[in-house]
Design goal:
There is one protein chain. The longest helix is centred in the C-terminal third of the chain and has 27 residues. The protein contains 11 helices and 17 strands. It is an alpha/beta fold. The two termini are about 35 Å apart.
Amino acid sequence: MNYDVIIVGGGLGGLIASIQLAKSHYQVLLIEKYNYPFNKVCGEYVSNEVKPFLKEIGLDLESLGSTNINRFQLTSIKGKSLETPLQMGGFGISRYTLDYELFKIAKSLGVTFVLNTNVDDIQKINETFFLETNTNQTFETKVVIGSYGKRAKLDKSLFREFPTQTQAFVGVKYHIKYNFPKDLIALHNFKGGYCGISAIEDDKFCLCYLSDRKNVKNSGGINEMEKEIMCQNPFLFDIFHNAEFLFEHPLVINEIIFTPKSAVHKNILMVGDTAGLITPLAGNGMSIAIRAAVIASKLISNFLQKKISRVELEANYTEEWNKNFKNRLWRGRQLQKLFGDEFNSNLAISVLKKMPFLIKPIIRATHGNVIQ
């Protein structure tokens, strides 16, 4: 079957784009390498800038058990602490639950799903894309959205090059049971990284951290690094010694890249982490993926209605992506330099305690306006 749009990857960006396009009565196919529901490495805190939009498309966050988060705590490696209200605030919900609910909404709108399948290659001949999968299927479409995450084998077949990054990172996530305020999100520094904790549904908490890969290598493994390096922060020491860890093994992702990427590559519109990854301490990757999907969907609809050309589609999407996210991602990268180092993290907290008026604009710099 020939589809109007094919989406590669069924994370937040892909699911939201599929819902928006299906609501406009386009034939949409989404190809995802896993089967819903599934867990993935993610901080699972969502800025309230997207909350009204999610409710509008039929997501009942309260019934799903999402938590309201309106306070933020920052600690240094040695345990110096700063706490402040979150102006806009956010909510906590697991990707296991959130993505599954969006998947069900998309299916109810007529989106076709091909699951447990990888896209190995994408070729464009004239005005038609041909997508080949690892299951020896070939699909045709007018438009392709790339929403397959931070890095995939597909990037290699598309000859997509990323700028080099001097520091290699690893991301690790757990779900835990722990005695911690549900309205508070905390960010705890350790040497070469930082760890976030916030409440999700069912009285659980998401514990997710980013670390310099050298920490893991030099310590001899993730568990050893957590004991030797992360637990030097007394707040993390308490978590790792008193929390109940619910996963048999942590979820891990390697080679995390924060250097800028292209929003369009070989005529494919990229959304979410595929287009650009904000540093986790900014806590806004999920809302950026949702907003990018909304922007892409509107422009694709205009293209399919022949209101704009393909050249205009790609140029307009790149312009909108840069306008909405480029500076936010840059500010996130600059902010990250203040953390993961004992001197810098202590200094940052000391300065912010003395000049608390700086906190609000710093937080605001990594957030967007409410999606209308």
